[in-house]
Amino acid sequence: MNYLQPYIAAAAFVLLTACGQQKAAEKKTEEKVGENLVQLSEAQVKNAGIITARPEKRIMAAELKVNGQIDVPPQNIVSISFPLGGYLESTKLLPGMHVNKGSVIAIMEDQQYIQLQQDYLTAKTRLGFLEKEYARQQALNQSKASSDKQFQQTEAEYRSQQILLKALSEKLQLISVNPASLNEASLSRHVNIYSPINGFVTKVNVNIGKYVNATDVLFEIVNPDDIHLGLMVFEKDVNKLAIGQKVWAYTNSNPSKKYECEIILIGQDVTPDRSVQVHCHFEAYDKTLIPGTFMNALIETAADSVLALPEEAVVRYQNNQYAFIQKDNNVFEMVQLKTGGIANGYVALPQDREELARASFVTKGAYSLLMKLKNAGEEEEE
Q1: What residue stretch is flagged as signal peptide (predicted)?
Q2: Partner of 62 for a Cys bridge, out of 31, 102, 309, 341, CB 3.0 to 4.6 A?
């Protein structure tokens, strides 16, 4: 059998040479393909379901993506203080509680409330006396039984007492005490604080027993029935907006739930970061939307005829968008795109790249190409 050894050795040499040539050819092909190109066999193209097509001209309304937060108009936010100051005797308010307009939200106490009520009742009693004296002096003056000076002095005292009583009445109403129902039996050191609106308590700045000044804010109540969406739009995009435009807003925690809004006001001043505030009104009130919540939003701008691809043709990788263009028979190149608006399952292509209109894009199977390209790159690194 020794006479066969030279032939076996020669056959092995030929086989190894062929394998080496094949690997060299494959390596040469890989070098030719490059890192953004992927080449498939006919079988791989069929299995991946690759379909190519040119971009279509479609009428699409571009979407402007912005962000902002839930806002409440000033008339729906009330900061509650107490004009005369005093000690907080009691309150049951906690942040998040709902209160109704006119309900008692706290009770204050102080000796100055007693003094004010006393002054009012004393002034009211004296006014009754001066009113009768004024009528008497007026009758005497008409009959020339008293001097004009005496009558004028009585009239001045009467008018002054009317002014004093009116001033004390206004002070009482300032602390929610009804002067008409006040008498010596209803004098009290306690004064109630009432809620001026329906809403939710957002701040409680005091505790029981604390002395508060007239300038201190005790509570803050917000009525969310008329909440707005405040958006910040860059200066360059403001000319695309108009009153009445539709806006679709969503939160980071639940992006699938869209809230329909409408632009009601566009700001007329530009902030230092070159943005303008835009106010939007929610079409339907949702109690889960809390003032201050961060929101993303899509604004529909004017419709236009643009080049577009099916959404499936555009894939995302590392926060960038890509599509695959057919370069040769079963050779595809991955290109980065900055897409425009999305509507009815199509995504708009950048309008400043005219060469894309002549390209043949992978409209089905793009994700499979992305996986093959990236997996091949990871294997090469290993």
Answers
A1: 1-24
A2: 341
C-alpha to C-alpha distance for 64 and 213, rounded to whole angstroms = 49
Q: Which of 21-25, 68-72, 97-101, 199-203 has the lowest mean pLDDT?
A: 21-25
State the burial class of residue 180 (Cβ atoms within 10 Å of its Cβ: 0-12, 13-18, 19+): exposed
Distance between CA 60 and CA 305 in Å, rounded? Answer: 6
What tens digit of pLDDT does each residue of 62-78 get? 678 899 999 888 888 89
> Can you tell me the distance from the alpha carbon of 42 to that of 377, in angstroms, rounded to the nearest whole number?
21
pTM (two decimals): 0.57
DSSP letter at 238 equals G
What's the confidence (pLDDT) of residue 89?
Answer: 95
Any idea which of 32-46, 132-146, 178-192 has the lowest mean pLDDT? 32-46
In this predicted structure, which of 45-54, 274-283, 342-351 has the lowest mean pLDDT?
A: 342-351
Length of the chain: 382
Looking at the predicted structure, is the pLDDT value of residue 33 above 90?
Answer: no
In 3D, which of 91, 84, 378 has the Cα closest to residue 208? 91
CA distance 29 to 42: 16
pLDDT band of 57, cuts 50, 70, 90: confident
Are the C-beta atoms of 199 and 98 separated by less than 8 Å? yes
Rounded distance between C-alpha atoms, residue 340 and residue 346, angstroms: 10
Q: What is the pLDDT of residue 144?
A: 79
28 and 264 Cβ atoms separated by less than 8 Å? no
Sign for the pseudo-dihedral over CA of 37, 43, 47, 50: positive
> What's the Cα-to-Cα distance from 166 to each of 116, 131, 159, rounded to whole Å?
13, 15, 11
pLDDT of residue 317: 87
**Whole-Å CA distances, 321 to 33, 63, 64, 338:** 21, 17, 17, 7
Map tokens 């050894």 to a residue.
5
User: Average model confidence (pLDDT) for the chain?
Assistant: 84
CA gap 191, 205 in Å, rounded = 19
Nearest to 366 by CA among 310, 328, 320, 319: 310
Backbone φ and ψ for 66, nearest 5 degrees, come out as -135, 180
